[in-house]
Amino acid sequence: MTVPVPAGLTEFIVSVAMVSWLAHGILSVNADIVSVPVSEGDSVTLLTHIKKKQDDRIRWYSLNTCIAQITRDQSRTCETVQCKESFRDRLKLDHQTGSLTITNITNTDSGLYELKINANRNTDTFNVSVHGVSAAERDTMKRKSVKEGESVTLDPGVIKRPIDPVRWYVNITLIAEITEDQSKICEDVQCEERFRDRLKLDNQTGSLTITDTRTTDSGDYTLKISRSRNHYTVTSIKSITVSVTGSGLSSAAVAGIVVVVGVVVAAAAVIYFCRRKTRNDEGSPHDRRGSFAMTVCMLD
After folding, report:
1. Which end of the chain is less congested by CB atoms within 10 angstroms, N or C?
2. In terms of domains, do 68 and 155 share one?
3. 16-20, 256-260, 284-288 — which is least confidently predicted?
């Protein structure tokens, strides 16, 4: 016995099936997209998680344009005028893994980046979102002024995880670092002679404190903090210019001024006493007495 199908039921079932298929397709595509949030000025590395073979062909695309590729033993980046104008030598390819690094990232770098390996149709897609930094925030982070003898703390301004490595440099010289639960400060002679146990690292935040500052501590300090995720690594780079101004005259200079002032006051007192004594003697009937008193003052 054949059960009649109600009118419109077949169309309804087909519609539901189509919606389910489309939803599954959309969700599958979105599931393959890796969200990569970064701040302006950071560097980001998009990871491939492969060890490249000699005959592998790796290509990176942005806006359907190939921006970097590795073919056999040759790697190339930005071969078009548009790419060169957009990135300006800020793309780096790891020849061993094919991972792509964008340095000093800007707002215009936001968008989708696709990785294709060989002729495989499957691609890894990264959605890079660049967040701008206000001018006021940049100025606050870039300048620190302090008087000699005071302490100054250089704050990373980012949230650090315990596994995130932190490195501090002054004029390109490494002076302090945190790797997992270990911290190191001034491991070379030049750094030790310059700071002499005056550097303090906060393992929780990664901030660097310089105690008992001196004018020789002035300079450019650079922080590099790396945050690794499953599919990408973001390296935040902060540059801070520290200016240490003198607190005033040195103790030796102050002592010298005190001695000079003391001599001047003593000389003035002697001159005043002699002049007063001479005036008193001028009224005496004996002129020789005044001449004698003046001579005595001059000898004194």
Report:
1. N
2. no
3. 16-20
Token pair belonging to 33: 């997209």
230 and 202 inside one domain: yes
Range among 150-154, 189-193, 264-268 rated most confident: 150-154
Which residues partner with 170 through β-bridges?
Answer: 173, 221
What is the largest distance, in Å, between two alpha-carbon atoms of the chain? 164
Q: Which residues of 172-195 are buried (b: 16+ CB within 10 A; e: fewer)?
A: eebbbbbeeeeeebbeeeebeebb
Tell me the two tokens of residue 109. Answer: 């770098």
Length of the chain: 300
pLDDT tens digits for 31-82? 479 999 999 999 999 999 887 777 788 999 998 899 999 987 788 999 889 8
DSSP string, 61-89: EETTEEEEEEETTEEEE--SHHHHHHHSS
> What is the helix (H) or strand (E) element at residue 299, kind and residue range?
helix 287-299
Backbone angles phi, psi at 41, to 5 degrees: 100, -15
Q: Mark out the alpha helices in the chain (DSSP H runs).
A: 9-31, 81-87, 135-142, 189-195, 251-282, 287-299
Structural domains of the chain, count: 2
Specify the pairing of strand 33-39 against strand 124-131.
Answer: parallel
